[in-house]
Amino acid sequence: MAPLKNGHVPQVLATEYASYRHDVIGKVLSVLADVQTGLERPLVLYDPMAGTAPLLPFAQRYGYIAYLNDLNTLHRYVNAAKTYHSYSTFTRVGSANLVSTLCTMTSEIDRSPRTPTGQWIENDVLQFLVRAWQKCGEQSKALCILARAILLLAIRDFASCSRSGNPTWLKPGGLRPPVLVQEAFQSAANRLVSFYEQMYGTKEIAKGGRVILTDHDASAYRPKQEVDVIVTSPPFCNRVDWDRLYAPEHFFLNAVGVWHTRAEFLGTTSVRGYDECESDMAFIATRSTYVRWLLRNVKSRQRPDECPSNYYVKYYTRYFSRLFRVFDTAMSALRDTSGAIYFVVQDNQHRGLRIDIGRALTQSLSSNGFEVRLRKTWNRPHLGLRNVSRRHRAVQVRQRERLWHAWR
After folding, report:
1. SS3 (DSSP) at 170
2. pTM of the predicted protein model
3. How far is it, in rounded angstroms, from Cα 52 to Cα 74?
4. For 113-160, how does the pLDDT look when each residue is reduced to its tens digit (9 = 90+)?
5. Contact (Cβ atoms closer than 8 angstroms) between residue 388 and residue 318
């Protein structure tokens, strides 16, 4: 399996900037090819924190069985449109027909006056979009998946929101942009077209593979069968909050009844009600001396007015305790004789303090009897991510990616 030659994995979500780069994908694919070589059946792959599922099209192309999970329900709906089956349906039906159908369902939006609002989407516009979502459900399953994915990809164009000083933190309210429904849906469909052309357009698809998409709490969920390889990439832990980053889409999903509040992996606001800090600290203490040291240093960087709440100490305690538990549950699904874990980590920063997620995971996995070694390190081009701690000077982060291998 040769590395991708055309740069990044095509982006589908407008705010999707955390997908693996082509050289990371290439290295991961070569690892999976080596594992598959010794098997007479399809390789079973599991990504407990799949996010935008950069490995999904490759699992389809090479015939793997892939369990891809992410708490973010938005990802499950959009990822469903990335499968080869959805690509085949899209090719058969055509972009123009899908866009035309959605425009017919939502044509009233163009005639609706643009008025300032204090919420993510104006009430009238929201009702039109909810009705379109419901009408999509009246179509065949294959068409429904595509239509709803395009609808979700276009939600941002109908939203009334603005960016704050933190580029990952949207604020609700304002005036929705003057975008016609035809333009919004065509732009969303074009993103799928770009993805399909690079991932499936000229590629042969191996038979026997399948993808299972879920949106469970990965610390409590494991696949229904044993897996050969776990490949995952833990999310950033420097206060990038997916619930805010995708807030308009989550607001819409809540309106159609498919989004519900959970203990988000990176929900920064939910830290304020976090009452398990002491027990989680005790859990971390048995798994990683590095994280214990890190938490002491995070606390030392707090200003006097922050000390009573220990906000950042709570945030990082919660992050690492959840992360260790996700890996613990995933490990329970590995085949006893040959299962392996590969994880890609990216450098994070907090007030000038480097956060080494790979080191933390190495110690936690070692405490579970795994051997861990570094496979490869890349310098990562800056993706717009900064040290965005509140009232702290924004610092350009020198980012690196590392691929680690863990085995029993």
Report:
1. strand
2. 0.91
3. 9
4. 999 999 999 999 999 999 999 999 999 999 999 999 999 999 999 999
5. no
Domain ranges of the chain: 1-408
Contact by Cβ (8 Å): 81, 146: yes
The residue among 208, 200, 203, 205 whose CA lies nearest residue 43 is 208
Buried residues in 322-332 as b, exposed as e (16+ CB within 10 A): bbbbbbebbbe
The letter for the amino acid at 110 is D
CA separation, residue 56 to residues 61, 85, 236 (Å): 9, 12, 21
Q: Is residue 207 over pLDDT 60? A: yes
- Please state the separation of Cα 157 from the chain's center in Å: 21
The answer to whether the beta carbons of residues 300 and 357 sit under 8 Å apart is no
For 362, the token pair is 């190495």
Burial class (CB in 10 A: 0-12, 13-18, 19+), 100: middle
CA distance 320 to 362: 12
Task: Tell me the C-alpha distance between 401 and 377, whole Å.
Answer: 6
Whole-number Å distance between alpha carbons of 329 and 217: 10
Are the C-beta atoms of 219 and 322 separated by less than 8 Å?
Answer: yes
Q: Quick one: tokens of 179?
A: 């975008």
* pLDDT tens digits along 342-360: 999 988 888 888 899 999 9
Give the confidence band of 262 by pLDDT, cuts at 50, 70, 90: low
Residues 300-323: tens digit of each pLDDT: 988 887 777 788 898 899 999 999
What distances in angstroms separate CA 264 from CA 70, 113, 196, 242, 267, one per listed residue?
A: 10, 35, 30, 9, 5
